Amino acid sequence: MTGTTVVLRDDSLSLWTSATTWHTQRVEASTFYKGDAVMVTAAFNTLYSGLNYMVNAEVMIPARQLEVHVQNDDFHRTEGSDVK
Fold first, then answer.
1. Where on the phi/psi map is residue 79: left (φ > 0), alpha (ψ -120 to 50), or beta?
2. Residues contacting residue 30 through CB under 8 Å, at least 6 positions apart
3. Which residue, 2, 24, 68, 80, has fewest beta-carbon neighbours within 10 Å?
4. Taking the chain, what is the end-to-end CA distance rounded to the nearest angstrom?
5. Any idea which of 9-18, 22-31, 63-72, 74-83 has the lowest mean pLDDT?
6. What is the rounded distance in angstroms from the CA atom of residue 41 to the CA atom of residue 32?
7. What is the pLDDT at residue 79?
8. Contacts made by residues 77-84, CB under 8 angstroms, sequence distance 24+
9. Inter-residue contact 52 to 45 (CB < 8 Å)
10. Are 41 and 57 in contact (CB under 8 A)?
């Protein structure tokens, strides 16, 4: 799914979902912050339990030479966990 002028003029939002599970797989957005272009991307994964989580995300504001990267990994089942 893709939309433009979602909140601000000329911004956009795109969502990718699994056709079978309806879980979000990817998100991309572009917008503006104090007049500067901002790009956001995020990727998602599904655990064996069915829980969907964000694997990584990136926010970039090129005009300010700013990048933020977030990485989530190493999920593992712990002993006694009630997650199935």
1. beta
2. 11, 12, 37, 38, 39, 40
3. 80
4. 31
5. 74-83
6. 14
7. 61
8. 83/47, 83/49, 83/51, 84/49
9. yes
10. yes
With b for 16 or more beta-carbon neighbours within 10 A and e for fewer, the 42-75 pattern comes to bbbeeeeeeebeebebebbbeeeeeeeeeeeeee
> What is the strand order of the sheet 24-33 is part of?
2-4, 12-17, 24-33, 36-46, 52-61, 66-71
Give the confidence band of 81 by pLDDT, cuts at 50, 70, 90: low
For residues 44 and 37, the answer to whether their CB atoms sit within 8 Å is no
Angle at 65 between CA 6 and CA 55, to 5 degrees: 60
Kindly tell me if the per-residue pLDDT of 12 is higher than 80.
yes
The model's pTM is: 0.79
CA 44 to CA 57: how far, in whole Å? Answer: 9
CA neighbor of 73 nearest in space, from 48, 51, 54:
54
